[in-house]
Amino acid sequence: MSRVAERASRPRHPAEDARVFLFHCAEYDVARIRAIVGGVLSELGLHPAGRTLVKPNLVCAGEPFAHAYTRPEIVEGVLGALKDAERRDDPMTELAVGERCAITIPTRFVFREAGYDPMLERAGAKRYCFEEVPQVEIPLTHEGRLRDYLFTPEPVAKADFFVNCPKFKAHPWTTVTFSMKNYIGIQDDRHRLIDHDHALNRKVADLQYIVQPQLVVIDAIVAGEGRMLTPIPRNMNLVIVGNNQVAIDAVGCRIIGLDPLSVEHVRLAHERGFGPVSLDEIRLGGDVTLDEAKQRAKGFQVGLVRVEKYFEGTSIQAYAGPAPTRGLKKTGAPGATSSDDHYCWGGCPGVMEEVIEVLRLADEHCDRKLPRIHLVFGKYEGALDVGYGEKVIFVGDCVEWSGKLGGELVHVRSKYVEREDLDPYGARHKDVYARMLKMANKLRELRARPWIRLEGCPVSVGELILLLAELGGINNPYFDRRAVVGFNRAYLAWRATDAWKRLTGSSYQVRGPTERGAARPDVTPPARGASSDATKERDGADTTAE
Ligand code: SF4
Predict the structure, then answer these.
(1) In whole angstroms, what is the distance from residue 410 CA to residue 451 CA?
(2) Please, what are the domains in the chain?
(3) Ligand 1 atom with minimal separation from the 377 CA
(4) Residue nearest ligand 1's atom 3 by CA
(5) Residue 324 Cα: closest atom of ligand 1
(6) pLDDT (tens digit per residue) in 500-535
């Protein structure tokens, strides 16, 4: 990528001219989406060059998750527009689409289920399953960071031109998932789970230092209300495009009637200089006004509901005590408030809410079939209202409780590991078949006595699905005939690829300084010893070519 082009197409930071465009789009029409995105690229004077990477939200796909992911028509339109805007004298050296979907599930399976594979072939774009490429280290130096480095897939670190293509959805852990929250998919399972608890918003804000998009295109044609894995579809008929993700998320919040500063990751990124939230500092464009967009989203439900309330009136009774706060207090992260820290919004309670919705979709009689269950989270000091024969599940590493159950005196002690002691270098992959076996053992345990304890920080969605499906005799979505063969084939292919790489000496986790592409944000100082051509060229251009 040439110096001049790189300077022209680098993400601006802090956003000098934050632009957000709202466009009407009645349906998933590739030609219309291509024209919309092409128009914005032209207006912003953007030309993709070098390693160009598009990141959709493919958290999950398949029938129960039909509204959870960025539709392939959006990405096909984006890829077409990028090719239209490419300059011959400064071409793209790679055009790729990359993602890490929900943990445990092979991304190659979700790409296929979501209909991406034939689309990528048509568009001539490469596919990256982020858990199948090397993970490289990105140092962090900003004040209030959760840790000193993060791991991300190599193609993300090396991207010169980065396009974020999220789905417009509510989220039970972070209120909304628009552009910034889509970054949870730029980490593989083992690294994603670190700080995926009551620090989740802060983790999302820290991920912003890895890469910044030159372009954001949000799929809000059919948006998702209430939840993130199984959202309630909401026709908004919008494609939202912009050049700064704080600005675009702030506009997204305003569309659904939220103060952007009430969403912690938006506020933190704004305070750290990643972009504006005030409409005075954001230039709006497109063919739909903000007021019209607000009308389309009137009454939009976000998913932030405490777990006790969420399960009211069902056979599940939840009890949530406070989660540990020590590690967070120590970091002195700006914005850490005691009320945020008391309830684990980013962890186990939200996992449970998503799990039950997946089971409800898999089996319409789910609520009737489930026996009465008591779920305990955090350090809970109250009594449990457990009747004869009812079961108690203590959820997560941090759970603590003492009392009598079925005549037995029970002491559940915290196994929570302080976040300072969690080492991303030591994080390991957890095998899905081992998880299944573990749940089968837990189930046996639960049949023999009134309680069990599930470990994890957070606990795994997949494990809870397996356990509750068996406990209630509910149709298990993991064993859905339509998906089971494809899932297992994709999982085994992924693990075989991984094993082969290890056998041939390739490192999965690469320590130390790494080469960064031009989409690296200005706020990140050069990686220690980084020697990318892009870095050298950019630094040279900054001082000589004005
Ligand atoms: S174990 Fe669960 S509830 Fe406890 S801190 Fe971790 S994610 Fe939160």
Answers:
(1) 9
(2) 29-222+231-246 (3.40.50.11440), 307-421+432-479 (no CATH)
(3) 3
(4) 348
(5) 5
(6) 988 888 889 998 889 999 999 976 433 333 333 333
